[in-house]
Amino acid sequence: MTAQGIDAFLDHLSARGPRRQFSIGQRVRVHQLIETLDPSIGPDRLPSLLAPILATTSQEQEEVRRAFEAWFQPAAPPPDTPPPPAPPARVLWLPVVLCSFLLLAVVIRLVPEAGIKPAGLAPIAIGPAPLGPEVPPSAITVTPLKPSVTAFEGYSVPFELQALSWLPLVLLLAYFLHRRHLVATVERRSGSGPTTTPGERRQLTATQAARATTLALRRRESTEHRVLDPAATIRATVRSLGFPTLRYRSLTRTPEYLVLVERQAQRDHLALYLAGQAGDLKTSGIHIHLYYFAGDPRVCAAPDGNNIPLAHLRQRYPGHRLVVLGAGITLADTVHGTLTAGGRELRRWPKRALLTPRAPGEWGPTERTLVRHFPMAPATTEGWQAIVDRFEEPARPGDEPTGLRREPYLEPVRTTEDVAAYIAELRVYLGERPARVNNFETPGMGIY
Amino acid sequence: MNNDIYQGKGETLAQRNAVLEPHRDTSRQFDPARYLADDSSRDAVITARILGMPLLITGEPGCGKTQLAHSVAWEWGTEAHVFNTRSDSTYQKLVYDYDHLRHFTDSQLKRERPIADYIVLGAAAKAIRDAASGKPSVLLIDEIDKAPRDLPNDILNEIERLEFTVRETGERYAAPRDNRPLILFTSNRERDLPEAFLRRCLFHHMAFPGPDRLKQIVEARLGSIGFSIDEALKLFLAKRELARDKQPSTGELLAWLTWLDHLKITNLSPADEAQRAALQASYRILAKTEADLKNLQ
């Protein structure tokens, strides 16, 4: 096998998608391996020798094997079976036909003007008329050099044919426009959803608050494991005049997050936005495992669409911090003021929180039910930071969150000057209806 | 072996004139000389050795990932250095640990020892030491996915360079360029490891073996058994499909067949009521959850 051959194979694999782009290191390793391999090793073993370099999942491992066999070892058909149908050739006929039409149109347009003389045209007499012995010189006439219009009449291009000559151009244009539309459709479908919100996402990661949130989310947490602290032990022993006094310290670890995004519909734009938030944090180096749920969280879905029971997530991520992104409508039974069965399952995570897209001013019975079981905050950058603070608080008996009204995001701080300014603006805006403005001055009435 | 070694009625063995016999010798099941690697696993090990890179092996629990490391070490005439990952595993424990408590005790008792006496080498240090001495070396870091997130990130440079220095003594351990230890990581899950870690490893997924290879494995591991292996494998594969929560793997198969052989079952479709009940009860070896056990029975 030549180096060019294996490079062509790697290019072929890379063309299958962005996830199959191979690094320079991988390509170098492939060549190193092939150069080092014993010549007695047959090519049939190359897929299993190369797959460890090229694959990072079991699916990719299988894909490499299949691609290799298809690329290097086309299977010969058994003698007693008919040959398999040829793979469909790439559709090239359409451009060829269109180009042919275009060429034909050009020929039709240009041929008469190119000076091809039609057969049977009488030569135009120029100069003196043929002289006969009996014709006197005075009888010599000059024939004007004027081509006969009727000479080209039989070769003029009919209007229908002229119109037909433009048809290939129109078809060609339509073909390219259709192709462009298809490509755009495929690209849109292969994206993360029906719409993207690049503006908001860029803003999320660019702000100073976002950077502070990222740092807070990454802040190490204590574990239940304790180890001997030599320095503290020595200090304590010295302080106790040599009596051995052991001191231990807790090990710390980087926190990991299990994020469940609530999806109200298959193409839920809000869920997409919230998942984008989590994706941005993941890009920033936060250890986030993202799953979705629709309605009942006891059955979740991985980003690739595969369903996974919540019980499995519980086994897989028992020590993770659980963050639910969504309004949590299906988690709360507002009639009884309790959690639904799905919501109760989420309580198995000792460290959990809910980030809701609803503004605090719109919070109602659902939120009042949920807040008894989940620390809640708005699904904003500040909200993420607020729940980190809650995660780092020591556990309280009864697992009952304290009143959240002291949190700034729950009760927007509005000074008397702020309220006066709002009222002044409203007076200017409403002008002729001052009675309504006075209603806002009623004590206890918030302005949202 | 007496099947009534425990009755759950408060009557002692002595009162029943019974003895607790030694349990069945299962060492044959874990004998690395009897391990049969599939072709892709064999080639993955060859690739890892040629390139001097760590190999991450994934696969179902019980499919033989750990045994592969012992098999390689067996064939190379050495012993695999094993680091069993725990939820509190740290990089320091993988390379070396300083016994502060012992040093502290000795200092209290006025005992003088060299500092090196308090250094406890970890599995990675032992593997590097073996490699430095020219011997083949195998390091198994088992179930890396159970480690805290920090461990895979902490060992990125070490698994690339394979060298470290003991801070307390200044002693440096480094693997030679042409004889790096074969590092095998095992994991039951995929994609939960950091990307940076995955980039530095080769990857191999150990698929569940097909019927023919299962038969070879059973014959190699268990030898002759009192019933048809083909029939047993057919039944096992059918039951495996019924398990929803956790499908039984090769390890469960070997344990199940060992138990059936112990029960002296000769027919896997027994007409005898007692044998049928025993067969039903044996499915608890294959099932790992209550729901799966109900499905299998």
What does this structure look like?
The complex is a heterodimer of chains A (448) and B (297). Chain A has 448 residues and is α/β, with parallel strands linked by helices. Chain A has helices spanning 3-14, 24-36, 46-54, 58-72, 93-110, 150-153, 159-190, 198-206, 208-218, 230-239, 269-283, 310-316, 341-346, 365-370, 381-392, 416-430, 434-440; strands spanning 221-228, 248-253, 256-262, 287-293, 299-301, 307-309, 321-325, 332-333, 338-339, 352-356, 376-378. In chain A, the strands form 3 sheets. Chain A has a 7-stranded mixed β-sheet. In chain A, a hairpin with a 5-residue loop joins strand 4 (287-293) and strand 5. In chain A, helix 2 packs antiparallel against helix 3 (46-54). The longest helix of chain A is centred in the middle third of the chain and has 32 residues, at 159-190. The model of chain A is unreliable at 148-152, 191-205, 397-413 and 435-448 (pLDDT under 50). Chain B is α/β, with parallel strands linked by helices and 297 residues long. Chain B folds into 2 domains: 31-203, P-loop containing nucleotide triphosphate hydrolases (Rossmann fold, 3-Layer(aba) Sandwich); 208-296. Chain B has 13 helices and 9 strands. Chain B has helices at 39-51, 65-75, 91-95, 100-108, 123-132, 150-154, 156-161, 195-199, 211-222, 229-242, 250-262, 273-282, 290-296; strands spanning 55-59, 80-84, 96-98, 119-121, 138-142, 163-165, 172-174, 182-187, 202-206. In chain B, the strands form 3 sheets. Chain B has a 5-stranded parallel β-sheet, sandwiched between helices. In chain B, strands 3-4 form a two-stranded antiparallel ribbon. In chain B, strands 6-7 form a two-stranded antiparallel sheet. In chain B, helix 9 (211-222) crosses helix 10 (229-242) and helix 9 packs across helix 11. The mean pLDDT of chain B is 88. Classes of the chains: A alpha/beta (448), B alpha/beta (297). At the A-B interface, helix 2, helix 3, helix 4, strand 1 and helix 10 of A face helix 1, helix 4 and strand 9 of B.
